[in-house]
Design a protein that fits this description.
Layout (H helix, E strand, L loop, with lengths): L1 E2 L15 E3 L2 E3 L4 E4 L8 E3 L19 E9 L2 E10 L9 E8 L5 E7 L5 E3 L8 E3 L41
Parallel strand pairs: 1-4, 4-5, 10-11
Antiparallel strand pairs: 2-3, 6-7, 7-8, 8-9, 9-10
């Protein structure tokens, strides 16, 4: 059953669609629509430019959680996106986005993060470059292109005579 309240209703036959228990309020009869009279999912928001705002107010230091969206499968958390406080804790005007997944034993891990300046880390939580990868990288097919010089350097960013680089074109062996 889809129930809705229009903005021109003052009362709805003295009937409440919501149930309260202590400080909690909930709805179990069907779907809820905001901006629509025919909601097709549990929460259906319809507008010219719909936005959802989740505002956390408890963060006081960098990496404190502001809010999160979690995926739960059969009562077990399996993935989540967390919104974290950034390093400007005085003005509170920057932040990070963290993507996490859970392993079968319930252990959670940050798989990817976007920091305050837009650097993306995969396998690291503190990327220092536009893309920082900690782990193996596989490119099945495709190209790696550069519009300028392309340098393969050691971890200190400086070329050394002992550095080895193997480039193999049109082959599966390196």
């Amino acid at each position: 059953t889809n129930e809705y309240i229009t903005n021109n209703s003052t009362t709805i036959n003295n009937y409440s669609f919501f149930t309260s228990t202590g400080n909690d309020i909930y709805y179990t009869l069907g779907n809820v629509g905001i901006g629509t009279t025919t909601p097709s999912t549990k929460l259906h928001i319809k507008d010219g430019t719909p936005r959802v705002l989740i505002e956390g107010t408890a963060a006081t230091s960098e990496d404190d959680e502001i809010s999160r969206v979690s995926g739960v499968w059969d009562d077990s958390y399996v993935a989540e996106i967390r919104f974290l406080a950034g390093n400007d804790t005085s003005n509170k005007d920057n932040g990070k986005i963290e993507f996490r997944t859970y392993e079968a034993d319930g252990v959670t891990g940050t798989r990817m993060i976007i920091n305050e300046v837009g650097n993306v880390g995969i396998g690291t939580t503190s990327p220092g470059e536009k893309l920082e990868l900690n782990g193996n990288f596989l490119l099945n097919t495709g190209n790696i292109r550069s519009s300028g010089d392309l340098n393969l350097l050691t971890d200190d960013g400086t070329p050394h005579a002992e550095d080895a680089c193997y480039v193999n074109i049109n082959s599966t062996a390196a």
